[in-house]
Amino acid sequence: MIANLAQGVQAFTSNVFLVDGERTVVIDTGANFDVVAAIESRVDDLDAVVLTHTHRDHVDNLEAVKDAFDVEAWGYDASIDGVDHELEDGERLLLGDHEYVALHTPGHKDDHLCFYSEDTGVLFAGDLVFQNGSFGRTDLEEGDRGTLVESIDRVLERIDEELSEMHTGHGPSVATEPYDHVELASRMARQA
Fold first, then answer.
1. What is the DSSP string of 98-151?
2. What pLDDT, on the 0 to 100 scale, is given for residue 95?
3. Boundaries of each Metallo-beta-lactamase domain copy (predicted)?
């Protein structure tokens, strides 16, 4: 089960995905709302926090979640405060009941990761791409448009047209032809 705990929150935050199952995790912790209460309303315990990247809107609630559930955080760069364990590019990890591969996808931020399950056709895209061909900002520190395009293309090489769901860092998840949204983002990022 995948649930967006930030859905309907009227505050500046990222989406926060609770992935329940054999290994119950939260992907990103969001900001400016009580994510601990939102987690507690759905599950009794949490096994880990997994981060797409460490922009503040994705990690401001990180310490509160780690303290409340006595869990550690996994991300690309363990030298960043709050990241306890490093996930390498291509590393496989269990999210819920399914295996995902971590894909290093810089361009929006150097430590950005996407998570893809080939078995279920699910992609957690973070702030790399969004609905309707939108893509992550590159005007912030560590942002780079050329690198972002390369990262989007790398994801396109891993996924296929059978992609069933794409869960993004902001905005709605995409369950109708999500592959087309990633492909459009690749084209749009080149033009902008």
1. EEEEEEE--SS-TT-EEEEETTTTEEEEETSB-GGG-B---SSTT--HHHHHHH
2. 98
3. 13-167
Q: How many separate domains does the chain show?
A: 1
Q: Which of 99, 125, 101 is nearest to 112 (CA)?
A: 125
Q: What is the dihedral of CA 91, 100, 123, 189, to 10 degrees?
A: 10
Note the pLDDT of residue 29: 98
**pTM of the predicted model, to two decimals?**
0.97
CB 18 within 8 A of CB 3: yes
Handedness of CA 185, 188, 190, 192 (dihedral sign): negative
Q: What is the average pLDDT across 106-111?
A: 98
67: helix, strand or coil: helix
In terms of residue numbers, what domain contains 108? 2-191
CATH number at residue 125: 3.60.15.10
pLDDT of residue 112: 98
Does pLDDT of 192 surpass 70?
no
